[in-house]
Structure to design on (295 residues):
């Protein structure tokens, strides 16, 4: 079972008290997604994203990375195969309001969001100014390396996306850095401990050194550089930290194996060492990205 299917199964058929998917998506959008802004910025700066960029964002979620690319003038298409709730928030975030300027309306014309797998982006109707294949940049910013099977799920997305990109186009893959460089790794071990009775698929595991390279190789991509980016996780308080981390889906197997109350309790205890005297929570992390090229 792929990670996408695992997440869908856990969300809909897990604990007795079902996860509120809309609230979970809102927590991701309002609390957790911004933790990866340094990663998005580093990639866009290195690849010089500008009005000539035609970007395909895989697993675009609630759209913050797309918004940042659009602010640089890029024409963007985002596909979200597993969370219609996050995609609905992306539509809100990227749609100009009634008081927006003509420039904002022009930006909307260069944005397309697709509910489904990458090939749906090729099939969906396009407006005149919307990005058209072949894309010259593909991004997969959802970090892999913390769920058993997540590399295989990313490989499936890439298999569908690579044919939509032009030859030589960069494909950006992201992953968690070494556990010793990620303070959050000690907190995520709670997920592994509580999810032990559940099958390995969808369970937390430590990130491995060559996760990204192995995915790129299986997808037939040619590695062309990498980088590491500091992405500290900072929260206003313990409640925000718990909600933000749960929104990642990394604790879904633990919730299925036990219950939400037990996960909340043990997650809060694991976060205490990272709480500052003012009540805020701070965890330094390093994330890694790989740039690979379409052959």
């Amino acid at each position: 079972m792929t990670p996408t299917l695992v997440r869908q199964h856990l969300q809909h058929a897990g604990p007795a008290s079902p996860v509120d998917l809309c609230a979970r998506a809102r927590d991701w959008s309002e609390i957790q997604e911004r933790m990866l802004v340094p990663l998005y910025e580093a990639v866009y700066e290195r690849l010089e994203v500008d009005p000539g960029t035609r970007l395909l964002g895989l697993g675009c979620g609630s759209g913050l990375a797309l918004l940042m690319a659009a602010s640089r003038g890029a024409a963007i298409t985002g596909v979200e195969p597993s969370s219609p709730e996050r995609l609905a928030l992306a539509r809100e975030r990227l749609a100009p309001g009634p008081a927006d300027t003509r420039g904002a309306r022009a930006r909307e014309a260069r944005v397309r969001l697709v509910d489904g797998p990458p090939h749906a982006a090729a099939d969906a109707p396009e407006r005149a100014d919307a990005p058209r294949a072949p894309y010259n940049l593909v991004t997969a910013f959802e970090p892999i390396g913390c769920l058993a099977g997540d590399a295989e799920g990313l490989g499936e997305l890439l298999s569908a996306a690579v044919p939509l990109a032009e030859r030589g186009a960069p494909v950006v893959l992201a992953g968690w850095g070494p556990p010793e460089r990620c303070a959050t790794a000690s907190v995520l071990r709670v997920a592994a401990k509580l999810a032990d009775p559940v099958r390995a698929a969808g369970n937390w595991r430590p990130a491995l050194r060559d996760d990204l390279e192995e995915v790129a190789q299986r997808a037939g991509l040619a590695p062309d550089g990498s980088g590491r980016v500091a992405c500290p996780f900072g929260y206003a308080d313990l409640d925000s930290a718990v909600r933000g981390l749960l929104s990642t889906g990394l604790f879904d197997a633990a919730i299925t194996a036990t219950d939400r109350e037990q996960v909340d309790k043990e997650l809060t205890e694991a976060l205490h060492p990272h709480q500052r005297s003012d009540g805020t929570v701070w965890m330094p992390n390093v994330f890694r990205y790989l740039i690979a090229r379409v052959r």
User: Anything to note?
Assistant: The mean pLDDT is 86. The longest helix spans residues 21-32. The beta strands are 54-58, 75-79, 111-114, 137-144, 170-176, 222-230, 233-235, 281-283, 286-293. The longest strand covers residues 222-230.
